[in-house]
Amino acid sequence: MKAPKLWIYNYDFEFELAGIQRIVFHGKHLAPWYFLNRSGVVLIPFADEQDSILIQELPDERVLTGLESLLGYRPKLIPLKTGLNESNSLLYDFLKNRSLVSEYESHQPVPWGWSLSINNYQETIGFIKPPRFTVDTVKLINSKHYSAQVRKNLLPKTFDIPSLTITDAGTTKDEIKTVLAGFQQLHSQFFIKNFYGTSGKLSDFCSSETFSIKKIEKYRRWIQKNEGVLFEKFISKKKEISVQVDIQPDETIIPVAVTELFSAKNGSYIGNILTDPIDTVLNELHSQLLPVLKNIAEKGYHGPLGIDLIETENGEYKLLEINARLTMGRVAFEWHRKINCHKTGLFANLFFKEQHISFPESLDETAKQLEKNFDCRISILNSVHSKINRSMLVTIFIAANTKNILLEVVQKIKPALFQ
Known about the structure:
It contains 14 helices and 16 strands. The protein has helices at 13-17, 33-36, 61-71, 90-95, 98-103, 116-124, 135-142, 144-153, 173-187, 213-226, 279-298, 328-339, 361-374, 403-417; strands spanning 5-8, 52-55, 76-79, 108-111, 163-166, 190-194, 203-206, 229-233, 239-247, 253-263, 269-275, 303-311, 317-323, 344-353, 377-386, 391-400. The strands form 3 sheets. It has an 8-stranded antiparallel beta sheet with strand order 13-12-9-10-11-14-16-15, with helices on both faces. Strands 3-2-1-4 form a 4-stranded parallel beta sheet. A 4-stranded antiparallel beta sheet has the order 5-8-6-7, with helices on both faces. The radius of gyration is 22 Å and the shape is globular.
């Protein structure tokens, strides 16, 4: 009999890879961490009924009842309720609660992504991974440097993006300024990326010819602490997509899904659109990306993996980055196949700031009216309300028969909520 799983939304794992210090809230509702700590319910489609999911606080019971009605079951949600000492690491807060650790030590940990701390915890309770699967392997594959190398060396030239790396820890501030100026002259607009980080964090967009001393010092720290920095040309895009695969321990590569990804200019995640059928695009991209996927499998990594690409106006694909972990694109797909009977679906995180919030009544009322007007279905997957910050995160899934309907509905939801 398989051990029940303990799903851990350790969204902070890439910051751990980057050596970023853990943050303790001291009673403040620090964004986005406060909201992410309460977003573990998005993992429900992955979990079986006997599994459990870590979360800081439970969402409104009416949300959970609605999800149970949609799915036909409800995994156990474990509220940590850490209080004043809450941090931006669910695992860290969980490990401080000895009674909970003891209660769930027979559950196999399944994290969002593998870091040293999650690896150590798994080994402590007796769940050992295959020897070639190491944290160093995960760190390498998640590095922006690795993404830049494989798109240049293993893929057709069309997948490459002009880039440059600095890896010498002895690089001076004046040398960084010189490199920045030269790259800016060549490419005008570009990104400066820490080798680690996610969703636009630890990344700067540059379109100016001047760089502050503060930023130069920051890039120098990145080089010294995180093995280097990547300078990457900004590429205008028609759309951004994410290819989801599973890599098995025997190196079998299973294509799972393609989702269209929406993000802000700085890279911050907004949502994903899924369209059926996706097999043609998935098979085409899987075939083209196979040299990279095989390289990853040969290094010993197995588990979920996402590759983010952009499609340019002339129809070329460019590889942005590789995420050796679960991704929001994969989360969107799991909700899509579990609850969507329409042709298309949109998974989105909607963040509202400084608004008077009446939940769930206003949200339910708005959803029902939009469902009637647009022949769609709107499911509320999660809600996180911060009274201190007067802000709210709402996670939704919209099902409809066309992409245009999805986009029109999601654009109406946010203003309609607070009229």
